[in-house]
# Entry
Amino acid sequence: MQAMNEPNRAARIEAAIRSAFAPTDITVQDDSALHAGHAGARPGGETHYTLRIVADAFTGQNRVARSRAVHAALAPEFEAGLHALSLRLLTPEEAARS
# Structure
């Protein structure tokens, strides 16, 4: 069980992404309730997330490189029970076009 002063996984994910990529925009959405009963789901949730990250750090990187970089930044969360991510990783220019 999580201590009252310990940040939840969404807050830890956001902090790790901010530290690694200095995004201009970030959305962290907990989708765990949608995956109850599926592989990797746990009682209490915090296993499945959708992230939208806009960062200059993605400039010049293809989708695979961006995804690998995000997964590397969140490795401690995967080791602690994070199961799945849905990622939308954009440069500021790509975000302005979408």
Observations:
- The two ends are 40 Å apart (CA to CA).
- The mean pLDDT is 88.
- The longest helix spans residues 9-21.
- DSSP finds four helices and three strands in the chain.
